[in-house]
Design a protein that fits this description.
Chain lengths: 352, 419
């Protein structure tokens, strides 16, 4: 009976969060003057088949129009059951159920690192040739690749700093000799010096990428890490990439966001057996899809290349910011959908 | 002298007005009333906007008073050509601050000349519990003004902590810090503007932040206001009325050069909070990160904000996780008791960033006797706390807050040049 009550409580909280997200969506789109029709019905707590309806923007080139459709049909892209309960009744999940998803992610990450090797070699060649514009293009490829590791780089520890560290923690900042890796190369290619001066830094990066190949198969990833990364990759992208803070010289925050989305999508996809039958699978996928659609339209509008943050028009920037907000609001239900244990009640404080 | 007596003394000495301010008869009458319960509060004081906190005294104002509703913290760099020009600027700063804190009529000396006061607060300035607290950064004691030998014993530039990857040099350190607090935003805005007039050409702005307190929304006056993560902040602050405690934790005498004895060290940290991210975190998780119940402010498992969290009864962190913020910040051991600091922080709200997320956070201000043994020791314990995922220090600095003027003829820093 206690377990049922706990489940009901959690379902109620999740329902409230979902309802808020749906309402926010409705308000957003009606405020844009694109929505019409009946108000969305909030999912009912504990109801086995909540039929949530939501207004979504159609981002097709024809223009934005509001449409009221079942979120499963419109946003799930066939990936989930629109009539699923808010939380699965299999919660809490056995930790062993994460083994498969984590193993699949590890294989994906290992593949990314294998591809990164030749990409960094190509960067080395352009730097040796002192071809700044080719070197920038090669850097973009390597940088975007590394960020696709999203869910594991926290497990690399110091190696992550060697490859992707910013100079903030160093005594002499960007001038510090210990500042190495992708961002040191970014600084060199966008802000100063001849490309050939970067030859030793790129050589060191090639070495570190080889270390990465060994680390990626060993990196410890717990179910909690993995469930957390499912939403934190994009939280980090909002804070670090969309603000431009972690792309200080190249301003390639859109490209970095695209990689973060790719990594998130892989995590969510590998977790689909665990999310099966839960509302968050549907809503999360819808959030990721909208962000992907926005990025795709930006790429098209900028001749097939994701623009720098500075090249975005004000309108494009707002659309990107809004899509990121939307995806993050929807990812917030993920941790609750992946609980591996029922939290213990807080003991009472006695002894006053 | 009890704290109350000291406050009364400060109030009386507020009668001293500077070159510009002239106290009206009304102000005089108000000043002779016994201090209201909320004196120095700037919100609950019976005197309201007419409340006056004197500028002069053995210690500077703006430290022991309960925080007023609004604050500006501004760091300035000295560009004065020599030490006497710098001294002139500091003297002017104190005279002007004393006049503003005293309130009263502004005078237009000569209609064709620019007015001595901008007039933003009208022809008669209500004191509004204004305090101006003046501090000096370590950089002031470099070679430029020949002050190296007079550096306060424990004054260093704020060290870089493990969480400080995102410190912005343009929002960090400085030669002189002004902490301006008052009951309303226009009061502090006006004060900064007027103070900058008198230091022009000698001190220039390096960075500034505006802070505000959460309004008192609880029936109990003992309830601490909330920060922008919605948790009560300042619950475990030491009692400022306990002078012996203040001597142990706040005022620095031992080992200080003569001019500095009886001052205190101010730690300022501008801490960005990722409020959107925080709002997407479950309440239970938030409470475990902090170690308190959000609504009541009570330690987890308890029911009263001011209840002792009794970590001794919870050695394995079953009630309050071992890495909860309150547990790391103040483990309530005898060692930790000696490390306590007097916090006087404010919330800040400064627009939004390129990702469309709100630029809000905590303007952390704390006073302590020994920054390395107190603040820095606490901060190092917090290095790997789970809360650090949601906050990012972006600026701040260490400053030495000189002792008070002692009387209306003195000025803050005077003995730095003459003593």
């Amino acid at each position: 009976v206690t377990a049922v009550l706990r489940w009901l409580l959690r379902a109620t909280i999740l329902a409230a969060v979902l309802a808020a997200a749906l309402l926010a969506g409705f308000v957003t789109f009606t405020a844009l003057g694109v929505g019409s029709g009946a108000a969305p019905r909030a999912p009912v707590a504990g109801s086995a088949r909540p039929r949530a309806r939501v207004f979504v923007a159609d981002a097709s080139p024809g223009g934005r129009r509001g449409r009221s459709e079942s979120i499963g049909r419109r946003e799930g892209g066939g990936a989930g059951d629109p009539h699923a309960p808010i939380l699965g009744d299999q919660l809490p999940l056995a930790p062993a159920r994460f083994d498969g998803p984590i193993a699949r992610y590890r294989r994906y990450a290992a593949l990314q690192v294998r591809r990164l090797g030749p990409e960094v070699a190509a960067l080395a060649a352009t730097v040796r040739a002192d071809d700044r514009s080719a070197a920038r293009a090669a850097w973009r490829v390597a940088f975007a690749r590394y960020l696709r590791l999203g869910a594991v780089y926290g497990a690399f520890g110091a190696l992550d700093t060697d490859v992707d560290g910013l100079p903030g923690h160093l005594r002499a900042g960007a001038k510090d000799a210990r500042f190495i890796g992708l961002h040191r190369i970014e600084l060199g290619l966008w802000a100063s010096a001849r490309a050939t001066s970067l030859v030793p830094v790129v050589r060191r990066l090639r070495h570190d990428v080889r270390r990465l190949a060994r680390a990626v198969v060993r990196a410890p990833i717990t179910p909690l890490d993995y469930a957390t990364r499912a939403h934190e990759i994009l939280e980090d992208a909002q804070r670090d990439f969309l603000t431009g803070a972690h792309v200080p010289w190249s301003h390639e925050g859109v490209l970095a966001t695209d990689s973060a989305l790719a990594a998130t999508q892989v995590v969510i996809s590998t977790l689909s057996p665990l999310l099966e039958g839960q509302q968050s699978q549907v809503t999360t996928q819808a959030g990721l899809d909208r962000l992907r659609t926005t990025l795709r339209s930006l790429r098209e509008a900028h001749r097939g290349r994701l623009p720098t943050l500075r090249a975005l028009t004000a309108r494009e920037h707002e659309r990107l910011v809004g899509s990121m907000d939307w995806a993050l609001e929807r990812l917030q239900t993920i941790p609750g959908s992946l609980e591996t244990r029922d939290p213990a009640p807080i003991p009472k404080l006695r002894g006053r | 002298v009890t704290n109350l007596d000291r406050r009364r003394f400060l109030s009386r000495s507020a009668l001293a007005v500077g070159a510009v301010g002239v106290a009206g008869a009304g102000a005089l009458a108000r000043d002779q009333r016994p201090p209201a319960a909320g004196l120095g509060d700037g919100r609950a004081g019976a005197a309201g906007i007419h409340e006056r906190v004197g500028f002069d005294g053995p210690v500077q104002a703006g430290i022991l008073q309960r925080p007023q509703a609004h604050a500006i913290v501004a760091a300035l760099d000295a560009v004065a050509p020599d030490a006497s020009a710098l001294a002139g600027a500091l003297q002017g700063l104190s005279y002007r601050a004393r006049a503003l804190a005293g309130g009263g009529a502004t005078s237009a000396l000569e209609p064709d000349a620019p007015a001595l006061d901008s007039g933003v607060l009208g022809p008669v300035i209500a004191p509004d519990a204004l305090t101006v607290t003046i501090g000096f950064g370590a950089s002031l004691f470099d070679g430029r003004f020949d002050l190296a030998a007079r550096r306060p014993a424990r004054l260093t530039a704020m060290p870089r902590f493990a969480v400080d990857d995102d410190l912005d040099p343009a929002r960090t350190h400085g030669d002189v810090a002004l902490q301006i607090c008052g009951g309303h935003r226009d009061t502090v805005t006006h004060a900064l503007r007027e103070l900058l007039r008198v230091v022009r050409g000698r001190l220039v702005l390096r960075w500034m932040e505006h802070g505000f307190q959460g309004a008192r929304r609880d029936p109990s006056p003992r309830s601490s206001p909330r920060n922008l993560f919605a948790f009560r902040d300042g619950t475990a602050n030491p009692d400022t009325a306990d002078q012996e405690l203040m001597n142990r934790l706040v005022w620095s005498r031992e080992g200080e050069p003569g001019w500095a004895a009886g001052g205190t060290y101010q730690v300022i940290r501008t801490i960005r909070m990722q409020v959107e991210f925080w709002d997407r975190v479950g309440l239970r998780e938030q409470e475990r990160i902090i170690g308190r119940h959000r609504d009541s402010g009570a330690p987890l498992g308890g029911s009263d904000e001011h209840e002792d969290p009794r970590f001794d009864l919870d050695p394995h962190g079953r009630r309050i996780p071992l890495d909860a913020h309150i547990r790391l910040a103040n483990p309530r051991t005898s060692q930790a008791a000696a490390q306590r600091i007097l916090r006087r922080g404010y919330n800040y709200d400064r627009g939004f960033d390129g990702a469309g997320t709100l630029d809000q956070g905590l303007l952390f201000v704390a006073f302590n006797r020994h920054p390395e043994r107190q603040f820095a020791t606490i901060q190092r314990r917090l290095d790997r706390e789970p809360l650090s995922d949601y906050v990012r220090p972006v600026g701040g600095g260490y400053f030495f807050v000189a002792p008070g003027t002692g009387g209306r003829d003195g000025w803050i820093g005077e003995r730095l040049f003459t003593g």
